[in-house]
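PT: before anyone asks, these are the final sequences, not the draft ones from last week. 598 residues across everything. Please model them as a single complex and drop the result in this thread when it's through.
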Amino acid sequence: MRSSLECIPCFVRQALEAGQQVCDDELLLEKVMKRILCEISGFDLSLSPPEMGQKIHRILREEMNVLDPYRQVKENASMVALSMVDNIRQLIDEQTMPFDAAVRFSIAGNILDFGLISAWDDSKIMDSFQNALEKPVDSKMIQQLKNAVHKAENVLFLADNVGETVFDKLLIEQLPDHLDVTYGVKASPVINDATEVDAVVAGIDKIARVINNGTDAPGTPLEQCSGRFKQCFRSADLIIAKGQANFETLNEVGREIYFLTQIKCPQIARYYEYEVGEWVVTTTSELRNIQVVESGSER
Amino acid sequence: MRSSLECIPCFVRQALEAGQQVCDDELLLEKVMKRILCEISGFDLSLSPPEMGQKIHRILREEMNVLDPYRQVKENASMVALSMVDNIRQLIDEQTMPFDAAVRFSIAGNILDFGLISAWDDSKIMDSFQNALEKPVDSKMIQQLKNAVHKAENVLFLADNVGETVFDKLLIEQLPDHLDVTYGVKASPVINDATEVDAVVAGIDKIARVINNGTDAPGTPLEQCSGRFKQCFRSADLIIAKGQANFETLNEVGREIYFLTQIKCPQIARYYEYEVGEWVVTTTSELRNIQVVESGSER
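LR: through. Structure below.
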């Protein structure tokens, strides 16, 4: 999806909050912010918001001379997630519909996002997991996904954040045994998005093939991805994409994709008649229908 | 006061909201926003936030080719204020401490600010006036101001927003008869700040001399003001400055000034230990004391 005018102040706020998370040198932050303002002033709004995020975080890393400013945040997120995983696996196994429960906890894990929400907030994070089984989620879409995983022979599962990965593993554990699973991550650090090493920390390499997409972009901007990743994307029977940045970069792609995400952006919420904070299971084709119903022509 | 890093995302948000209030051409807004981002990227943060607001609103007016984009907003604010003024004057006159009440309604009028708060919100506006007599305001400072107006021979009253002017008039009516009152406004439109014509609409010219400060800046950046205004500023026994932009441009000036404002900015709130939404009567010397108490050296 293209960026909107409303993305502009949001980019700027995110950039400052991200900078402040990793740096307390006001003069350096001023320099960084001014460079980022220039970058945004030249940004092509026909590109997706994660592509702007990519540019902003490249500047942050370069100016601060740190390859992975979110390393500590990611370690915390992994630690918190791993401390919960055994209890939640048991809880999932106790449910009458464990696949449904696993989908819910995978979406619950999407709270561990430090792009849109900069600061670590224990109560928000715990709230997301404690209410996972009660949160309204479209049960028809979960059933449709369940049918799809049974029909498919191979699935490409696109990761979002570190820590969330741990709960994605619980969902992968609920997939049928015959299914060949590839878990797609980023090639190098951007915000707290998962890379190959983070997938290993979550133990995903034990139950799936891990592949990086060749980029340092949030989401999955296909034009930037490696040939190997694009081949994997094209040949997958089924794609499950986690998180809002994957939603923003893939929602208009010409193939069926399942999106599992928490809605964090008021623009996306308005566009698709979601609420901010809503938990969504949807597909590219369902999203096209929402658009057609709402506008009659184009939105 | 200097601008802070936190002003940057706030400037950008205000610029977009202001643009959207007066224009629905997305392409023009994109052009305007990109120009404003460039402008902010070159901004000297040692200047005050209103000086950035001045630059932003100059760009908005120029690109949209409108001399006074807030004309309609100002007409609405005047109409609403004038519809209330007789009842509120009567209410003030009925109080045992009418000066105190008039100070409160003058601060209540400061809700009519469309710089920081872009959209007209009836409930917020009504709430401000309905709670004027109950709002916590430092009564010692009101008494100190009352003593000061009795001692002074001439007062310079610095206006903020259109509509608020109507309630400033009610406060001016409570000043002692001997006092020579000058009401300072902007030379030309910026946001919904009062100019000479707006002071006349409020009827202030009937009870005070109206003078413009020579600028199109929110607040009162003295270096930009006309010689005539600066002369008036220097020779005033007493200065009463309304609103946050006057606070931001005059809080460190080397003379006593009374500030009457609602606190709208989290940065100012943090710096002076106010709450956002608090109603403040303070002076330059009291502000210096707060700083000294809090930091020991400098903040």
